[in-house]
Amino acid sequence: MLDIYTQRLAERTNALGAAERLYNFVSSLRVVVFLLLVACTWWGYLNDHLVLEAFAPALGFVALLVWHEHVHRARRRSQMACAFYQRGLDRLSGAWVGKGPSGDAHVPLGHPYAFDVDAFGRASGHSSG
Q1: What mean pLDDT comes out for the span 62-70?
Q2: 24: helix, strand or coil
Q3: Are 95 and 5 in contact (CB under 8 A)?
Q4: Is this prediction's pTM over 0.85?
Q5: Burial of 54 (0-12, 13-18, 19+ CB in 10 A)
Q6: Sign (positive/negative) of CA torsion 8, 14, 15, 16?
Q7: Structural domain for 66, as ranges
Q8: Both ends of the chain: CA-CA distance in Å?
């Protein structure tokens, strides 16, 4: 099981790297197209035919916004997959203790036995017990 999780984490990490590179590329491309849109809009304003010069860059910018959202979601899925397999590896190796949510919000305040049963103890993610 450890080998499978290690292999899948490596695959997901590679996919995350590719998603990060694509995300950064689309971000840069959006900046370039936006500057082109501003330049074309200014040129069209000066030459009294604003719509013609700004139409193509505006359309391209909107298309990049849609594509960037798609890439952002794919990148987020890759991040969550990496975190999933890393948590699985932590569990398999015993390194997960104390890394989860503490559960302090569920401990009844002032209850005399709340910490005696260790329902929210170190092995359940509680970081101080």
Answers
A1: 97
A2: helix
A3: no
A4: no
A5: buried
A6: positive
A7: 2-96
A8: 30
Residues 80 and 122 in one domain: no
Amino acid letter for position 123 = A
pLDDT digits (tens, 9 = 90+) for 94-109: 877 667 666 666 667 7
Q: Say yes or no: 104 and 55 in one domain.
A: no
Which DSSP category does 129 fall into? -
Same domain, 75 and 108: no
Q: Which two tokens stand for residue 32?
A: 């370039």
- What percent of the chain is modeled with pLDDT above 90? 53
Q: Which amino acid is at 49?
A: H
Q: What is the DSSP letter of 90?
A: H
Q: Is the pLDDT of residue 114 over 60?
A: yes
Same-domain check for residues 89 and 111 = no
Q: Both 8 and 22 in a single domain?
A: yes
Same domain flag for 36 and 86 = yes
- DSSP classification of residue 108: P
Token pair for residue 96? 């997960």
* Same domain as 55, residue 72: yes
Confidence of residue 128 (pLDDT cuts 50, 70, 90): very low
